């Protein structure tokens, strides 16, 4: 008679004495204890931490036109996205942001060639036929002399905008928009829903286009060209309309827009604090991003944040919705968001001390040099790649529709008729 296999296989660790097990745990290398866990619902990183990290990198990119430093910022953001993004639809939008950045650079260069540049240059590359304009359009030209200095200035400016798009694209690819909506204060719930719907439109559109192109390739049909684009556009539009109708139905079923009765003085105080705080945040942010406004920008930004938070807290009393399993802002979220803040702070401080290193000279034209201190500060932005929970990697057991491999012949139970 065949003996059924045991329910639990004993291992060498289980058979070892208790003293040996304790000694092995004490002598275990610390890397095993500090290993990054796999991302699950209970330990997933807060979506706001990804946005704070990306906004810190974007702030650093706005303070420089050095192409080497901008390229390093894009590389840092791209590496973190490559090792920490999931397989969700919004995680596939980073490539679209990179392509948009390249298009911005190309458009900026074309405008510089045909519409001129505010930078006077002495190295003439070519001279285009100039279109005469009326006297009221002074300062604007179409065609004319194209200089090397003007093109380099346009390239630096386009690279800065492309780096900003890459940083924001990293936040879109890493942060779950639905969880970000759940973390918003109650006073911003209605506005947050509109923002999240707008944010998820582009990733879902990209996912639909990729899916339809793959389907056309599998059917042997062309997936490139104007004709293929027109044939793909109709199903994409149909899917967008279906999602809009489904979203409206689910929002109506969940009672979207319900509010509670709040006294008039509380409403007026909430409005004053919120509007004043948001105005202070905008003014302080402009001061931080401007070339000479870092001195007053930080105090105004902090005062605006405090006033806005107070107004949002009071405004949250009008919201009658409840939160189910709210996301926890843990140590890893502090490390991720803090790394972005550190990058922005160090780059801003260095820009006030040595602005020539972060903004290479165009007239006269000089080769850009990578400054060591800002480059080291930008590398702090790599911290999320080592502390954020790692996304689950699909293995053989995660593939849907697959069956477990058959056991080897030596470990298969012997059929009853073969026992003789």
Question: What does this molecule look like?
Answer:
This protein is mostly helical and 420 residues long. It contains 16 helices and 2 strands. A two-stranded antiparallel sheet has the order 1-2. α13 packs antiparallel against α15.
What's a quick, concise take on this entry?
The protein is mainly α. The chain has helices spanning 12-15, 18-26, 30-33, 47-62, 67-84, 94-115, 148-174, 177-182, 189-218, 226-253, 264-289, 294-315, 331-353, 355-358, 372-379, 384-387; strands at residues 124-131, 142-147. Residues 6-34 and 396-420 have low confidence and may be disordered.
Fraction in beta strands: under 5%
Number of helices: 16
Compute the separation of the termini in Å.
10 Å
H/E element order? HHHHHHEEHHHHHHHHHH
Overall SS class: mainly alpha
Summarize model confidence as the mean pLDDT: 75
Q: How many beta-strand elements?
A: 2
- State the low-pLDDT regions, or none: 6-34, 396-420
User: Strand order, biggest sheet?
Assistant: 1-2
Strand count, sense and closure of the main sheet? 2 strands, antiparallel
Helicity level, as a percent range? 55-70%
From the spread of the alpha carbons, the general shape counts as globular
Provide the gyration radius in Å.
28 Å
């Amino acid at each position: 008679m065949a003996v059924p296999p045991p329910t639990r296989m004993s291992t060498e660790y289980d058979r070892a004495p208790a003293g040996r097990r304790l000694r092995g745990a004490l002598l275990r290398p610390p890397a095993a204890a500090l290993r990054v866990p796999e991302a699950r619902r209970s330990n997933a990183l807060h979506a706001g931490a990804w946005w704070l990290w990306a906004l810190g990198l974007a702030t650093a990119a706005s303070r420089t036109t050095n192409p080497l430093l901008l390229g390093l910022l894009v590389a840092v953001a791209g590496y973190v996205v490559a090792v920490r993004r999931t397989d969700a639809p919004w995680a596939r939008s980073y490539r679209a942001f990179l392509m948009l950045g390249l298009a911005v650079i190309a458009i900026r260069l074309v405008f510089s060639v045909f519409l001129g540049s505010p930078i006077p240059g002495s190295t003439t590359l070519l001279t285009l036929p100039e279109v005469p304009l009326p006297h009221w359009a002074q300062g604007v030209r179409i065609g004319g002399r194209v200089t090397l200095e003007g093109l380099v200035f346009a390239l630096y400016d386009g690279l800065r905008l492309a780096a900003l798009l890459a940083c924001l694209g990293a936040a879109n690819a890493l942060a779950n928009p639905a969880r970000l909506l759940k973390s918003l204060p109650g006073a911003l719930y209605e506005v947050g829903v509109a923002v999240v719907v707008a944010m998820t439109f582009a990733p879902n559109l990209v996912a639909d286009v990729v899916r339809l192109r793959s389907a056309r390739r599998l059917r042997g049909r062309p997936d490139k060209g104007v004709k293929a684009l027109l044939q793909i556009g109709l199903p994409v539009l149909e899917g967008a309309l279906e999602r809009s109708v489904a979203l409206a139905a689910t929002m109506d079923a969940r009672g979207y827009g319900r509010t509670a009765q709040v006294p008039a003085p509380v409403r007026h105080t909430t409005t004053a604090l919120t509007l004043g705080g948001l105005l202070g945040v905008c003014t302080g942010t402009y001061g931080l991003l401007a070339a000479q406004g870092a001195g007053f920008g930080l105090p105004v930004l902090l005062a605006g944040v405090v006033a806005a938070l107070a107004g949002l807290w009071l405004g949250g009393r009008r919201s009658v919705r409840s939160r189910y399993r709210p996301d926890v802002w843990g140590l890893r979220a502090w490390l991720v968001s803090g790394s972005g803040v550190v990058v922005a702070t160090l780059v801003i401080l260095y820009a006030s001390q040595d602005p020539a290193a972060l903004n290479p000279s165009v007239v006269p034209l000089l080769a850009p040099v990578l400054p060591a201190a800002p480059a080291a500060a930008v590398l702090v932005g790599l911290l999320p790649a080592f502390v954020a929970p790692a996304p689950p990697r699909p293995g053989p057991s995660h593939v849907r529709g697959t069956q477990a491999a058959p056991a080897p012949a030596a470990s298969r139970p012997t059929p009853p008729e073969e026992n003789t």
